[in-house]
Design a protein that fits this description.
The chain contains nine helices and 55 strands. The chain has a 19-stranded parallel sheet that branches.
Length: 728
């Protein structure tokens, strides 16, 4: 705001030139409850300018306040600065929303250059809402000087650059409990995002992960798992990593491979605390190096073979960067960096260099062309340790918010959910079975099966068609709808989002074995490529859910009153229609009932972010399972689900061998045949599996309510728009 002639300095004390401390008064008052003082430069002015003096004091105070907000919210890419941006704007909103939006008023005092208080009138700053939204704020400064009062105001709109929730993990655990994985195979990334210390995760039997692994806690390797660091399924130009915030203990064979050459930013293992081995540990391969970082190393047992650099850097607490190498066979095809002391009790071969800050014990056991002791490690470039994030992006909104909130920025499905409980939607599967037009339904559609723009008529048949929201209750006639009924759920612009409420404690034995096929022909969003509407399977969590606002400490939505429910399915198949009609032959599709069986050998599923010749890459999944707090969902006996689970306070158990004979490709065209339990993402408080089965990544639809689960995490800048100044 530029100075005008009426702001030129006069001869009476008091044109106000503020320091930054003055302005931070209002921004920090809620947190510190202290009063700041404003320094001023005094000049003389005439008694005739009382009114101008009051105006100058008020306007200068206001301008400095606004300028400080601008400084605090200047665009930045630094994560720490972004956090400060957010804090400044959030504090401003807290001030404005106080007293039911009337805001917060604070008296401002001024100190002269001699440290004494200047008698240049009294000034107050008020930060209040403008209208009903805290996004619009008016900051008012009022000064009274020798009986004359002037008031100025700035009208500002707070803003933030936001991004939708992003899902990169095939399986993601949100809870703080321990977990054991029995023969789990994951194509994509896997994570445990609850940063509670002391958790222990265990790999049991033939566990394999084809992607990145991030876990807050410790990992114990008691069998023979493998991790393949492959190109990211989210961005094929990037590779994968292993991050464990606490300890890694290897008591059986453990191998970490890579299919990509090493590059900065990926192909590394980062252990926050100690690595201990008492068996075989193999890392990387020739031409496919993997670096390893930890804060303490105790290498023993049979062998360690690494292609890449081994770094032992000081960590927090007792972790002083010390390393002991005492395995029967020890080969590092790279360099070794130790920030503490190095103790070598058995033969150690290092093809690169050894750099040790402390002392080396057992030099005679080392074979290395270049050994340096007492050096300072640069920790720059490749040698810089990757950061273990303090926490992952956490979820703000839960299924309960999607079920009950009236805020359309959060949910679009609460009206349909509540319709199940207010009597306006009493339809069940049996309702559709009572309509002959939906029974033994035949669908013929022209489809580009080969991706070559050649349309082929495809006919598929179903025992039942459902085209609107309803409850899945155990009320269908078994003779007609038992033994593998194929049920079509038909989503369109006419139907809008379809919600299938699973009736409380729904349990279906293997004699039912339903096959659900979800066809979505709603309008395609031109900006995302996803369908406008989606199909939701929702828990019967009741209508007594209370949304208790956002927790001031965690920043998460609070809720209570969810109904506990348990679901059991002994064989359940859920397919996306476009995948289903490509996966199976025309002879299989013409059957309206029965297990579809093994996919045809020509079908190849492509979960990557790039097109691969001869494969089918599904669109983002528009099949969403939303299970509220206290829900347990258990499926067994060769079940297969193509869809995404958002169940951060529920238990998901898919203990099954899944769908056999499914061909899967990677971005390089490599192919393997797997037994698959699920294609999508699984986000759960805890997760259970059994037997050898694969879980394959597919991103959920960007038009689904899952995009709001993280509250639209703020990305670039927290700032404001200065709409106008007013002088009253």
């Amino acid at each position: 705001m530029k100075n005008t002639p009426k702001r030129k300095q006069r001869n009476k004390p008091g044109v106000v030139l503020f320091t930054a401390v003055a302005v931070m008064l209002m921004l920090s008052i809620l947190l510190t409850a202290t009063v700041s003082f404003v320094s001023v430069n005094r000049t003389k002015t005439n008694d005739n300018y009382k009114s101008k003096q009051a105006y100058l004091t008020a306007s200068s105070t206001l301008e400095s306040f606004i300028n400080q907000i601008q400084t605090d919210t200047a665009p930045t890419n630094d994560p720490t600065a972004k956090a400060q941006q957010k804090k400044a704007i959030e504090n401003l909103k807290k001030l404005a929303s106080a007293n039911s939006g009337k805001g917060t008023t604070t008296n401002v005092s001024y100190n002269g250059g001699n440290g004494k208080s200047d008698n240049i009138g009294t000034t107050t700053i008020t930060v209040a809402q403008e209208g009903t939204s805290v996004a619009n704020i008016v900051v008012t400064c009022e000064t009274t000087y020798l009986g004359k009062t002037e008031q100025v105001a700035a009208h500002i709109s707070t803003q933030s650059v936001t991004k939708p929730a992003d899902y990169t993990n095939t399986i993601e655990l949100v809870g703080n409990g321990n977990a054991s994985y029995d023969n789990i195979n994951v194509i994509g990334d896997m994570a445990g995002i609850n940063n509670t210390t002391g958790k222990v995760y265990r790999f049991i039997n033939d566990t394999q992960i084809y992607g990145s692994y991030l876990m807050y806690g410790s990992l114990e390797v008691t069998t023979q798992p493998k991790i393949y660091l492959k190109p990211s399924l989210v961005d094929e130009t990037k590779g994968s990593t292993v991050t464990i915030s606490e300890n890694l203990t290897v008591s059986n064979k453990f191998k970490v491979w890579s299919t990509m050459a090493r590059a900065d930013g990926y192909n590394y293992i980062n252990i926050g605390q100690k690595i201990s081995t008492s068996n075989h540990f193999n890392i990387g391969d020739s031409g496919f190096e993997i670096d390893l970082f930890c804060s303490e190393a105790n290498i023993g047992g049979n062998s360690i073979t690494q292609y890449g650099n081994f770094y032992v850097y000081k960590g927090a607490g007792a972790y002083q960067g010390n390393a002991t190498f005492g395995a029967d066979s020890q080969n590092i095809y790279g360099s070794l960096y130790v920030e503490g002391d190095l103790n070598v009790t058995k033969a150690l071969n290092v093809t690169g260099s050894i750099y040790v800050t402390g002392t080396i014990t057992g030099k005679d056991n080392i074979t290395c062309p270049n050994i340096k002791e007492g050096v300072v490690l640069s920790k720059a470039g490749r040698d810089a340790r990757p950061q273990i994030p303090v926490s992952s992006d956490e979820y703000i909104y839960y299924p309960e918010d999607f079920f009950m909130s009236s805020n359309t920025d959060i949910t679009t499905i609460s009206g349909q959910y509540n319709a199940f409980y207010d009597g306006s939607n009493t339809k069940t599967f049996n309702t559709f079975a009572s309509d002959p037009s939906n029974v033994n339904y035949t669908l013929t559609e022209d489809i580009d099966l080969q991706g070559n723009n050649v349309l082929t008529p495809v006919t598929s048949k179903y025992t039942l068609r459902i085209d609107s929201s309803c409850t899945w209750a155990n009320d269908l006639n078994f003779n007609t709808y038992g033994n593998g009924p194929r049920i079509l759920i038909d989503v369109s612009d006419t139907s809008g989002d379809i919600l299938i409420k699973l009736n409380k404690d729904l349990s279906l034995g293997s004699e039912w074995s339903p096959v659900i096929v979800v066809r979505n022909r709603s309008t395609i969003d031109s900006s995302t490529g996803d369908r406008k509407y989606n199909c939701y399977f929702v828990s019967d969590s009741g209508s007594s859910i209370s949304l208790d606002g956002i927790d001031s400490v965690t920043g998460k939505s609070k809720h209570s009153g969810s109904t506990t429910t348990n679901y059991n399915f002994h064989t359940l198949r859920v397919y996306d229609y476009d995948t289903y009609v490509r996966m199976y032959s025309a002879d299989t599709l013409k059957n309206a009932k029965g297990d579809p069986g093994t996919p045809q050998s020509s079908f190849v599923l492509n979960p990557t972010s790039v097109d691969v010749a001869g494969s089918y890459r599904p669109s983002n999944s528009g099949i969403i399972f939303l299970f509220g707090e206290g829900t347990t969902f258990q499926v067994t006996n060769n079940s297969f689900i193509q869809g995404s689970f958002y169940s951060p306070e529920a238990i998901i158990n898919i203990a099954t061998q899944g769908l056999g004979g499914l061909n899967v490709t990677d971005s390089a065209g490599g192919k393997m045949t797997v037994q698959c339990c699920a294609v999508g993402v699984i986000i759960a408080n805890s997760f259970g599996n059994d037997n050898t089965a694969f879980y394959i990544y597919t991103k959920p639809s960007t038009t689904s309510v899952m995009q709001n689960a993280k509250g639209g995490k703020d990305d670039s800048a927290f700032g404001y728009t200065l709409d106008r100044y007013d002088h009253y």
